[in-house]
Design goal:
By secondary structure, this protein is of the alpha/beta class. The chain folds into 2 domains: 148 residues, Medium-chain alcohol dehydrogenases, catalytic domain (Quinone Oxidoreductase, Chain A, domain 1); 143 residues, NAD(P)-binding Rossmann-like Domain (Rossmann fold, 3-Layer(aba) Sandwich), CATH 3.40.50. The chain has 11 helices and 16 strands. The strands form 3 sheets. Strands 3, 5, 6, 7, 8, 15 and 16 form a 7-stranded mixed β-sheet that branches. A 6-stranded parallel β-sheet has the order 11-10-9-12-13-14, sandwiched between helices. Strand 10, helix 5 and strand 11 form a beta-alpha-beta unit. The chain is globular. The two termini are 14 Å apart.
């Protein structure tokens, strides 16, 4: 039996329950993983509230690290005792042990601790596909990145610095601005007292930026569009403030703007490609160019409190659960 957070109805954090579930032995193509850290991501809130529907009751969470306890028939590149992480596969990471498809497991290299990896598997891989695949950055660009002091944001700050990219990051407080700058964000915009588009115009000599990475959504859509150059790209990689609705006529008026809504599953598959993404990420970590530790830590049975903290927008960096 294993401990797991499950929910039987959509709603607020209070719907999350700690339950005992049967785990069993891994079948063909599977592996049983005992978690050391479980990441909390904003997408988990979308599932909990029903914005992304699931058949209920269900588990929650798609991102964790741990140690392989056993593997099933046909699994050859993962073995018992291996340290691994994952970010794809079925919901249910909020648990102490679970059976997973082995082909989504990512081996963790020596020199990268489980604690560090817990902040990198989803969030670091997100920074990788945003900056290296969705809108490939080569260095020399000036970009606008929303929520620069968040879990993905702080890794993005460091990755931008490593690439030689000038990053303008939005944050909600002066405290978060200092954290973002310390991690490599070139300029910060404190949204509680500064106009985003006006400030971007000042910082770019009125030109705007070629790309905006916007994980906030509804509250920042207009500012994102107004910050872009003609034929610029809006990468809508999240909707923490609510979903966006875009009139395509507005895109033309704003300068023939391109918009994409990327999803990890379409960029991190097949397996060989996912492992190459992880290699690039871990190489930067091992070279000291990206450093990451949890900003907030909760026990597994405090998952509801972790969600409340994340929804309050008062967290800095990554949030993790410890089984």
């Amino acid at each position: 039996m294993a401990k797991a957070i499950r929910f039987h109805e959509v709603g607020g954090p209070e719907v999350l329950r700690l339950e005992m579930v049967d785990v069993g032995e891994p079948g063909p193509g599977q592996a049983r993983v005992r978690h050391t850290y479980v990441a909390v991501n904003f997408i988990d809130i979308y599932f909990r509230t029903g914005q992304y529907p699931l058949a209920l009751p269900n588990g929650l969470g798609s991102d964790a690290v741990g140690v392989v306890e056993a593997v099933g028939e046909g699994v050859t590149d993962i073995k018992a005792g291996d340290r691994v992480g994952y970010l794809l596969g079925p919901q249910g990471a909020y648990s102490d042990v679970r059976v997973m498809p082995a082909d989504v497991l990512i081996p963790l290299p020596d020199g990268v601790s489980d604690k560090t990896a817990s902040t990198l598997i989803m969030k670091g891989m997100t920074a990788q596909y945003l900056f290296r695949q969705v809108y490939p950055l080569n260095g020399g660009e000036t970009i606008l990145y929303h929520a620069a002091a968040g879990g993905v944001g702080l890794i993005a700050c460091q990755w931008a610095r490593a690439l030689g990219v000038t990053m303008i990051g939005t944050v909600s407080t002066d405290e978060k601005a200092e954290v973002a700058k310390a991690n490599g964000c070139t300029h910060t915009i404190v949204t509680s007292r500064e106009n985003i588009a006006e400030r971007v115009g000042e910082l770019t000599g009125g030109k705007g930026v070629p790309v905006v990475f916007d994980s906030v959504g509804k509250d920042t859509l207009e500012a994102s569009l107004d910050s872009l150059q003609v034929r610029g790209a809006l990468v809508s990689n999240g909707t923490s403030s609510g979903p966006v609705q875009i009139d395509t006529r507005v895109l033309a008026r704003k300068g023939s703007i391109w918009v994409t809504r990327p999803a990890m599953v379409h960029y991190a598959t097949p397996r060989a490609h996912m492992l190459e993404m992880a290699r690039e990420l871990f190489d930067l970590v091992l070279a000291g160019k990206i450093k990451s530790e949890p900003g907030q830590t909760f026990a597994l049975d405090e998952a509801a409190d972790a969600h409340r903290a994340l929804e309050s927008r008062k967290t800095i960096g990554s949030t993790v659960l410890v089984p």
